[in-house]
Amino acid sequence: MAQKAYQFRFYPTPEQENLLRRTLGCVRLVYNKALAARTQAWYEQKQRVSYKQTSAMLTNWKKQEDLDFLTEVSSVPLQQGLRHLQTAFTNFFSGRTKYPNFKKKRNGGSAEFTSSAFKWKDGQVYLAKCAEPLAIRWSRQLPPGCIPSTITVKLEPSGRWSVSLRVHDTRDLRLKPIKKEIGIDLGITSLLTTSDGEKVANPKNLNKLHKKLRLAQKSLSRKTKGSNNYQKARLKVAIIHAKIKDSRLDYTHKLTTQLIRENQTIVVEDLAVKNMVKNHKLAKAISDANWGEILRQLDYKAKWYGRELIKIDRYFPSSKRCSSCGHVLEKLPLNIRDWDCPQCGTHHDRDINASINILAAGLAVSVCGATVRPSGSKSRKAGAMKQKAPNSDARESRAVS
């Protein structure tokens, strides 16, 4: 059994849009007030505020005269917002994320409804305090017999409304086993190169609309912030960004599904994309290539369809190692795309050679559990030191929960 979320666009009536916008505003207000209270309590009194305490604060806020509008919307999304804040703090204390930020109106917003705040009837969704069902554009059907357990309504900066239905999928989607195995080397010029010698071109979705986006952003910068013309220009920029995002995500889904269907074992490098985008010269190209999303989709789709995904260490010298004799070069700049091995004289295409080495290393890890990290790498030493020293953030996380 797998938990899946199916996202659809919907078109609310004026009454529904009015109610949903007020709901999103109340969720944002409660989240920000709870975050401010927890931050203030720590800096002024060195006290930690728990989820139960913020829930009691919400009850008191509803009794205040200037906040009585909180009672006009469903209470479930407000409570869920406090739970999301608690999750954000738990992730922060465990070292996985940064300190929670305040929510902003310009980013749209979302509201989560549990089963007590919506009704699923005849394939239609009725939200709390809404008499009419949501006009959802059903681009695909939910799995047979699946009933949504949680519904999330989201407003994008471009003004589009979407609803996400979370269901428990009991179907067995595992594909028939095959014998094909490939290694994948992600890149920029070629989005990915396989150990079979195939190169997939990078669609470069940002470049297709870059000129239009640049002109729209230039027009936005000339508007008076807060004016009606500013809001119109901001909406144009958001719509262009949405088109870029949609085309990038659509291509990524099609590519990863094809890789999963055609191969039994896929080997990739465990890239630290968040660290790589800190390079200001390559950040835009890496972000547009969508490496992180490709690895994420391969991970969960491999579990769905009964395939094997192997991740090797990011410090493995896949490009500098000769796939024929194993000789490792001392240096190999990025501008060198072809090279000859000084040991055996084999001519290598940089990306194809890397993908062959990635496949070999992944199969070694799979068969015998061998490590492919260089023995003298700094990361190995840092990892050993990290294991010896207990994580203080983890202790704080346990204390908060």
What count of domains describes the coordinates? Answer: 2
Question: Are there runs of 5+ residues with pLDDT below 50, and where?
Answer: 375-401
Q: Give me the count of strands.
A: 13
How much helix is in the residues? 40-55%
Average pLDDT taken over every residue: 88
Largest β sheet strand count, sense and barrel closure: 5 strands, mixed
Oligomer: single chain
Order of helices and strands: EHHHEEEEEEEEHHHEHHHEEEHHH
- What is the radius of gyration computed over CA atoms, rounded to a whole number of angstroms? 25 Å
List keywords for this structure.
401 residues, alpha+beta, 2 domains, 5-stranded mixed sheet, 4-stranded antiparallel sheet, 12 helices, 17% strand, disordered C terminus
Walkthrough of the structure:
The protein has 401 residues and is of the alpha+beta class. The protein folds into two domains: 168 residues, no CATH class; 188 residues. The chain contains twelve helices and 13 strands. A five-stranded mixed sheet has the order 9-8-7-10-11. A hairpin with a 2-residue loop joins strand 3 and strand 4. Helix 5 packs antiparallel against helix 6. The two termini are 28 Å apart.
